[in-house]
Amino acid sequence: MSKSALAGGVAGLIALAIVPFVAADYILHIAIQILIWGLIYTAWSLMGRFGLTSFGHGAFLGIGAYVPALLWNYYGVTPWLGIPLGMALAMLVAMLIGYPSFRLRVVGHYFALVTMALSQVVLLSLVAAREVTGGSLGMTINVVHSWLALQFTQKSVFYGIALVVWLAGLVVWWRVDLGIGRVALEAISEDEIAAASSGINVMREKLRVTLISAALTAIGGSLLTQYIQYVNPDVVSGVPVSLQIVFAAIAGGMGTLLGPTVGAFFTIVLNESLRILFGTHFIGAANTIYGILLILFIIFMPQGIVGLIEGISARAAHGVDEEEEAAAAQAMPER
Asked: What pLDDT score does 41 carry?
């Protein structure tokens, strides 16, 4: 890591740390959502950047959202225990769907369809179990403001928790990016047969990144529910939510560390703007525009917003270097 990048990272952390002291409650509310959804989108990018296109993360998000909420509402189990249980169940479901898919070499759009079906199954199950989950009307979390319930009257406290968990998600992404597993996953995404013949355990590597992605997504779903203190199947599960996750990660730049978080900022600001602009007059506007923008980003900006900025910066730096070399060559005395 260069000194300039390190300095920029430190400055960014300082800026994020002082947000609760200077921002109004509404801005803090938006910032918390950006951090939580940024974590979720980062979790998806762990798979998406290696060719494992999943439309099933709505399933992991829904599991992570509902498990701690149900345990708290019906049995009084603190979310500090419910969240790990939600992560474990999400990983189990990821294993149950991932193992046979990877074993039978279900890849490409076939894998995407399998995961899409998983997301819809979870949505329909949550709606069908209306006596327990509240069905399509959703469920309100029993409110007991305390650390035990992971509920707070001050948004700044939850902002701090969301910030720490988001940073942890970035660290996981960074470790995967720097580890030897990245090389293996890139080889697998190019050609599974060639990767296997070179000694790479294809099954293990694909399952590893899938389980990590599912666990991080479940954490994001849990935090979102605890913060809003309400959960609805349409908000945390199903194909539309999975499409939102895919769009945001691609729009921000799923191949970069901060790309998914930039995608979270973009989509949340877009969603808030549409809510203010249309109100209840254009229901489903966000999903419609997400679909249109996803097509445009894939065609014209496949590297996402961060990738585009990095590309422009690299070309600008390369141009400056060429100008400096030319100037140095002209300044050299003739012999």
From this structure: 96
